[in-house]
Amino acid sequence: MAAGRIGARGKKKADSQVATGVPIIVSERSGAIAVRRRTVSGEWERSLVTPAAVWPVLNPARDAVAVSVVAQEGEFLRSNIELFALDGTHLRTLHQTPRGVGPVIAPRIPHYAAWSPRGDVLSYVAQSSYGLTLFLSEIDGAFVSDPIINGAPIFSAWCPDNNFLGVHAGDELAVIEVEGSRTTANVAERAVGFRTPAFSSDANIMAYAVPAEPGVAIMRAHFQGTGGREVHRLPGGVAMAFRPGTCELTVALTRQPDSGVFDELWSIDMAGEAAGARLLWRGPLVAFFWAPQGDRMVAIVPTHTGDGRFSAWALDAEGQFAGATEPFVPSVDYRTVLGFFDQFATSHHLWSPDGEGFLLAGRLPGDAVSAAFGDPVGDYVMLWEARRGAPVEVVGPGDVAFFPPPQQ
After folding, report:
1. What's the rounded Cα separation, in Å, for the pair 60 and 134?
2. Which of 77, 168, 180, 252 has its CA 20 to 30 A from that of 88?
3. CB neighbours of 335 closer than 8 A, spacing ≥ 6?
4. Residue 397, C-beta contacts closer than 8 angstroms, at least 6 positions apart
5. What pLDDT digit, counting tens, does each position of 37-86 carry?
6. CB 205 within 8 A of CB 164
7. How many C-beta atoms surround the C-beta of residue 186 within 10 A?
8. Is 372 a residue whose pLDDT tops 70?
9. Torsion angles phi and psi, residue 258, rounded to 5
10. Poorest-confidence range of 92-96, 141-145, 227-231, 294-298?
11. Phi and psi (nearest 5°) for 151?
12. Residues whose CB is less than 8 angstroms from the CB of residue 351 and which lie 6 or more positions away in sequence, other chains included
């Protein structure tokens, strides 16, 4: 049993005080959404938000959370996006899927939702009579369920300026002006080899990819999507994110896209006219997540033991090893986050706002396999300080959990 472990058969107080008082929103196996907060004594207090929902996304400006709810309505299954205060008060319905339309966009996923940087608008992908559709809902009700664009698949990212939304729908990439005229600027008609566009922290640069021999060309454009130009080529598919506070684009490269595993991490300086690229870290890895301060990242690395285990590795800004967890088996929902990490990292935050703690979800090596033995607890949410020698601490039962986003 790991040091600092809080298990189903007893408790052990952790020495760490990471995330004291900060709300962690947890999706529990029971179907409930709950808030966990560490007290000054080191215990984890739980408060219920709602007994039946999934995929919570915390608002960056208010003590509120948007959740997906699937419920039986007569002979139909319907899915809603509901807004709750963290004390459990229901605030409003942000979206309701029409009757006769599929209630989910993928197994276990009714919607994918992301708040704008100011928290005033929720963008989300849901089913409509036209297939997958990106909608917008304003938190205070000026507009609700406003359809923006159709396509499959749909990946999106908010520009930090709060007004522009990069949308990769099918093979096409566009930038949508949310406020005012809702102008859509077409950026590229054949944008493939990547999923989610990336915006720099200063809101000046958008990065994306287009096909080019031997793999893709990394492209740099203005945040409105104009002025696109090639900056570097890589021999495979990519997933991208800017290092916070910089114009350095971190690119995960895979030469076998169907494997779900990336081979290398590259750093590309997007600031100047002549972009410089350097190899940051050699994999394999399945995901990477920058800390909000941009001083380190966590890479999720397969252990190659043949039993689905992974380890979280801490790397500094230069790609140097700075610590690792013991192997763990991710929960199903955590695997979804890892599988689409470039999308979820923009909306569902695994790092604490101060960059001191990182969330995992699943089971440690000493845990029984819950599906085989009917374990009523299931998976656990775990907190790691992302440094050498730090133990993994169990926060409580849960399928997946997220911190509030860092303050802009």
Report:
1. 20
2. 77
3. none
4. 8, 28, 29, 377, 378, 379, 380, 381
5. 999 999 999 999 999 999 999 999 999 999 999 988 878 889 999 999 99
6. no
7. 10
8. no
9. -75, -15
10. 141-145
11. 160, 170
12. 289, 290, 291, 292, 298, 357, 358, 359, 403, 406
Question: In this predicted structure, what is the pLDDT of residue 368?
Answer: 57
Closest CA to 396 of 39, 2, 7: 7
Please tell me the pTM assigned to this model. 0.93
- Contacts (Cβ under 8 Å, ≥6 apart) of 89: none
Tokens of 16: 């760490």
292 token code pair: 């909000």
Do the beta carbons of residue 11 and residue 376 sit within 8 Å?
no
With 0-12 / 13-18 / 19 or more C-beta atoms within 10 angstroms meaning exposed / middle / buried, residue 161 is middle
As a whole number of angstroms, the distance between CA 73 and CA 310 comes to 40
Q: Mean pLDDT of all residues in the chain?
A: 91
Distance separating alpha carbons of residues 313 and 303, to the nearest angstrom = 11
- Residue whose pair of structure tokens reads 């090893």 in the numeric block: 321
Q: What distance in Å separates the CA atoms of residue 350 and residue 360, rounded to the nearest whole number?
A: 8
* Confidence class for position 6, pLDDT limits 50, 70, 90: very low
Dihedral angle sign, alpha carbons of residues 9, 12, 13, 16: negative
pLDDT at 9 over 60: no
Whole-number pLDDT of residue 169: 97
Write down the residue that tokens 């595993």 correspond to.
Answer: 261
Token pair for residue 30?
């029971």
Tens-digit pLDDT profile for residues 201-210? 999 999 999 9
| Beta-carbon count within 10 A of 304 CB | 9
